[in-house]
Give the backbone structure.
Amino acid sequence: SSESQDYVVDAVLRKGFKVTEKDKHGASVLHYAAGTRSVKLLKLLLKRCGDASVNEEDNFGSTPLHYAAFSNRTKTTQLLLEMGCKKDKKDHKGRTAADLAQMMGYGDIVQLL
């Protein structure tokens, strides 16, 4: 359930896990959450991370919006846009989130972007 998911996230954060911590690819938990269906989890993380984190890039220049668009996540894409994610940011291959969605054939995401 989403309540148990919130509890787990809160518990992990209370234990000192930093939501801004990155993996070997430079991706934070926010990047990965953007690629899931959990809008509630993404909102919780955004509240913890702060507004600046919505445009944070991984080692490949991808933002959380790139992850959401590539994963065909309409609701998380919408939320990231509402939170100020810049849709014109390009990854290191010169692709925007809309370019990725177009490449994958995700018309609903392309329309949002």
